[in-house]
Structures are given as structure tokens and as C-alpha cells.
Amino acid sequence: MKNNKTKRHDDRTDLVGEHAFGDIGQIIFLIIFSIVWISDSFFFKYSTISLDTIPNMVRMIIGFPILILSGIFAKYGLGIVFGEVRKKPEIIEKGVFNIVRHPIYFGSILLYLGLTILTCSIASAIVWIIIVIFYYYISRYEEKLLLKEFGKEYKSYMERVPMLIPIKFNRANPEE
User: Fold this and answer.
1) How far is Cα 151 from Cα 139, in angstroms, rounded to an integer?
2) What angle do CA 11, 4, 30 make, to 5 degrees?
3) Is the full-model pTM beyond 0.85?
4) Which residues contact 94 (CB under 8 A, 6 or more apart)?
5) How far apart are CA 9 and CA 19, in angstroms?
6) How far apart are CA 172 and CA 88, in angstroms?
7) How confident is residue 16, by pLDDT bands cut at 50, 70 and 90?
8) CB under 8 Å to 75, separation ≥6 — which residues?
9) Residue pLDDT, tens place only, 65-104
10) DSSP string spanning 23-67?
11) From CA 46, how far away is CA 35, in angstroms rounded?
């Protein structure tokens, strides 16, 4: 029985699958963000009040490195997942997958954040928050597929590598 919420890559038996709405959702959010960001940042400027208070240089010093990081995570994540054909499905733990479990999604989140910082668009920041929630939702769905496929091995990977933000929160037992 096929799950209608899961997109399979029929030509790639080494991939477990992803949320069926993932690709179209990413395209829809890219379009929405682009419209809001461009219209607010360059035409109407209805929520870019802080542009006057935060110097261009400060915004560039923060925004451009975030944009560069977004490209690194997306490029190397896509290269590892789709550039290498494996004999069978396996947990990918090398490269950027050693930093976050979903580096391609993290790269996209950073892209939107970097653009938002460059123009200080509050409207774009609101759309960015919705996009982060979307990526969290599809990441959780895909992790359920991976847990079903790999069980304890993926659970162990989840404990070692953060999901979307490369910060490992200490979940140590306070009684230890």
C-alpha cells in the first residue's frame, strides 16, 4: 500500500523518499517570499523601517556570509544525495550531513534569512518564520520514513546530529 503523502524517486532505489508536498511547497514558498521580499524591499517599503537605523555595511557583513553558507549547505547536500548513487538506501552521515540532518533545507532557510537581513524587511521575516515551520514539518515527516527504514541506526544518528540548526542542545539527565 502506497502512502499518498510520500514522494518516491522511482529511478533511485537508494533513496527512502520525501514528503509529496515538499517540492511543490518549496516552489510555492519561494514565489511567495520573492513577491513579498521584492515588493517590500524595493518598491513599497512598507515594513523596511529599520533600513534607516541599521547601516548597509552591518547588514552586508551579516547577510552575505549567511547567503554564502546557504549555498554551501544546499550545494554539498544536493551533491551528496543526488550526485552519488548508492547500492541500497543508507544513512548519509558525511560532509554537511555531519553538521545537520537536513542540510538542503537548512541551506534554504539560510537563503531566506540572508535576504531578509540584507533589506530588513519585517514582512519577509514573517514569511521566513512560516517557511521555517514548513521545513520543520517536512523534515519531521521524512524522519519518520527514515526511522521506519533504519530504526535504531537512524535514532542514533538523530542523537548525534541536530535536525535543522547546527547547535547541539545538551539533553543530559540532570540527575546524573
Assistant:
1) 16
2) 80
3) yes
4) 80
5) 11
6) 34
7) confident
8) 107
9) 999 999 999 999 999 988 877 778 888 899 999 999 999 9
10) HHHHHHHHHHHHHHHHIIIIII-SS-GGGGTS-HHHHHHHHHHHH
11) 13
